[in-house]
């Protein structure tokens, strides 16, 4: 008799789950709202779980830091859900250089160590503070911000974004890591040509 | 001479910062999009930093667990920014009971211990898995989900939400912790009256 | 001469109708914003009209009630338009059990009979009332709610949703109609194992 | 002992309910997202229920029809929830004249009688059909549409909108019921001056 | 050594650019949020630049005016970016007839000449004014509006929209340029049949 | 008799106009969605028209350029309408320095002269081109971009934004025009201290 409920309602259950989630099919067509959805019947719990943030990022580099993203491109389970994450590892002296996320606000939680984090508003006001374990800080969408290991030990933070695909524009790479002509950089940033050429050399830029 | 730039552009800087953020004024009028904004000139870095998630929540309770929110009501810096956080502490045997967030998707990252987490879709499919340190899991908006300490030690997780005010509806409190009449509960959940009355007794409900 | 207008403007008309609507192509790729659009030239008025809510749902079941949806999966004309509908039939004694719509708010209008409807807020406050013919009630997004035939005759209501794909999570099916393990249910809901097993038996659940 | 849960979680419940709803305070400041919220502690079930659509609208007028709205201005419970309703009464021969809703899509359900309803797309394609009891039809946002009683009896329909404040622009009132100068109307619609003056006379317009 | 940064961060750069833009692939599947995205590696600066608004539109027609759109269908670079443009040319005596954009608000800037522009609100209040070179005017979403050359020279304006696909419904074409039956027009607009037939004749309508 | 329509419908007209627009009250409370609305009865056409972009900006400064905004703070008529504008004047040799708009995409139309405009994507790809009169270019939200007078005459462009309050972060002012400490700039941008101090000197920064 209760089976009658099952019969009566079961078509609802199969048809309505599109509303719940849209695990990204990285090979399907992509639109302004994100990736196409995997067929619901092929989705498993593993689509909603990601282990790529479990290991310490490789900080043996010049910034002594690493950013490991879990955006929809790495973690398709967040596609369409308005949220994503990344892991920040900062060795002693490590720095996440000045950058923006064009499409999302960010919240950072310090899990280990001490991090000096800050952002600059449109009104050119600087907001920065030294954060300890358990502190959280929010960085409003699209503003320049940075994180610096302010302690004497390895630091670890997790950051979350208000978009599954927040984007990441690192200032130095945007200016010096591509083929943006030196004279355009000079004109639009007032930096000296020598400074520009020096950083282009280090960051692999041309032009 | 460069001062001329400052002069020419400075009015922009003072007028355009409304776009950047809207730190909540908890005493001002509230609208569908959130709290009113604090006057920008009174905003400091401390509005963007919250230390309330730094301490272990009190898990000396029946669920052996604690949820500590940093929603816009606790952390007004996230008002209007589409994101918020909370801290989950689970003592050995601890459980965050079955609940929903009516207004947000959630991503959880395990910082310590092992957590069995899961959700149930509209299609009545269950997705759950044991998560280890560093694993992340996403819970799509509005679906029933839970977290259980699956290890033999204290567990800690941080969760982020795709809204500054995600809401939290804990199933047992919704059903048994208020004055929802027993007969309505019985009719709409098929639970036995004895079961309902037992849980109402424990959770402080009436009716 | 007026033909010149037609000539001048006609290309607008053929290119701009993408903005008007996006009738769902249930066989095309699906994205976070909904189904792909049918080619506009194949769309007819019948794509915007649905007759599936015209007949009384089959209430010969244990809940003596039926929900007939017109979501984008059944009525592709609403795809992308932010709205959908469903029909509720409640025989005498009929009940739409406790449920949520993870992705939409709902408005109900009573067309026949008397319906006791209610919802529970995140603050565990219960809002319920007996509604007569012509009364409307709104259920905010994602909250647990229910409808009970409170009269002595068949009742009929139409409900509308703020999404073409609101989802539907019926509490009992979510808990007892799938393979969610009994011990997880017990831990996360505080229900007695006997109660869980009884309802799993009735609703076809396992685990 | 369970009281400990209540203690531990109760602050959540009081602070998080802003996410659930925002019943409009018609006297408070209004913003782009809608009315300010009533204080949650003053909200009762009556804020979520509206009886104003229960009575037949007065169709003793030239259009032999009546529109009775339940927008946020009449039914503040829908404020911020992305949905609203209205009631359409059409006496025999009644007509809801050509109109648009600038801010919402609409779904109509016929409850009594037969209604010929239609809309015109940006591509100047006309979609109209005779709808019987139980039929539903969707009208995409912002497009000109109309409803005509196509039967020999009184007709009744309920319409829902994808916004709590959809707006309503009735073509004839927009053109002829205000002080839009006759020459501007003539130039922008190609209507004859005599026709314009005739309708201005009937609809109370000047200019 | 800096190469290590490049190595460490480069995978971010290739995977995260979906957030930046979604140049429309006019041949791919279309969804409610717009066109599918061209493959990022095939995108060049020419996808973001459009020269189609550079030439004066052909105003040798009865309205002595021309609208040249740069919506996503003509300028796929704006797909998904929430903005688009069009060019308005008005010869002496030219008129952009009464129309709406169902899906966007509009801002107009006068570049040459004098334009009388106006709109009508839902409250049937008329807002119109003569605009000179450099003046801007905003037309809220979905409302009837018009532009008339109010000077003695050619006029030029650029208009921007809050959507890549704002739609365009020209009142006269909607009513008289298609096969909407005369009796329906008469019933829903109160226009005289003779007037309707006259304009249908001029605008190429039938029915 | 037609007066009956007026009577029957007039209450709609007075109550529904909130949906049309929300002219900003710069002195009222502000929320995440923008300014509070002016009382509709005090709104006139002048609230929707702005003449502040009519005059050439003062380019007698070091960048030989001027940005004149018509954001909601200057032009409250756009509040809540998802769009705004600005005027760019570039004298010969003028430059709008590298900047972002954290909250909006932008479309630029060249009205006079030749402008070299470009942006840099998250993937560190540079898109720039010389634009002539009538050319338009789109700059996706939040990305670094610039405009340079590439001709031998004064240049003029109008830019539109997909938000009434797009924000404006000029890179040099963000880095060198405030009190961001030199060592933080050095660590997060890899610029030489001498370069930083030089630009701080010119732009009025301290720290």
TrEMBL record, chains A, B, C, D, E, F:
Residue positions binding Mn(2+): 99, 101, 106, 145
Pfam families: Cupin_1
GO molecular function list: manganese ion binding
Ranges in a coiled coil: none
Major localization listed first in the record, in broad terms: secreted
Binding site for oxalate: 101, 106
Annotated S-S bridges: 22-37
PROSITE patterns: GERMIN
Compartments where found: Secreted, Extracellular space, Apoplast
UniProt cross-references to SMART domains, sorted A to Z: Cupin_1 (SM00835)
Domain Cupin type-1: 51-197
Cleaved signal peptide residues: 1-18
Family in the record: Belongs to the germin family.
The name this protein goes by in its record: Germin-like protein
Organism: Hibiscus syriacus (Rose of Sharon)
